[in-house]
Amino acid sequence: MQKKYLHEFDSPLLTWKAPEYIYHEKSFLWFIIAAIVAFLLVIYGLETNGWTFSVAVVVFAGVYYMFYRHKPEIIDVKLSRIGVKVGRHVFPYSNIRNFWIVYDPPFVKKIYFRMMSKLHPDIFVPLDGVDIAEVKHILSKYVEEIKGKAEPISDTLVRFFKL
Prior knowledge:
Distance between the termini: 33 Å
Helix content: 25-40%
Largest sheet: 4 strands, antiparallel
Radius of gyration: 19 Å
Number of helices: 4
Number of strands: 8
Strand order of the largest sheet: 1-2-3-4
């Protein structure tokens, strides 16, 4: 998006704050179980001569733990006449194929954006503290809404296992 249009986000149609990603508090028991699973996967990899698998499990576990220790920042989400701004990322409406809202409080309150490019994954933004009807009203002027679409199974699994 050209910089000359970014001033549109100086006076957005709607703005709210959201965490940059969903953070799940984990108990000590969760970490014990995860360590046991990781250990068993490492042993399996070594027993089947898949040492690269074992190394990958150890690296993944270490990176995940480091990522877990980083708390998400609170970012601004802005809807304007030209697109959606999530933190410092700008998504013009011309790059968004459609959107859908999954609203099942207290478990799920998210808006998903499906991008035009097949290479770009769906983007979701938490909807805590914002009027969902107003979000739908604004976005429906620029992007098609998919009604009744559920949360992707991958997001459900992440939420269920608190990953």
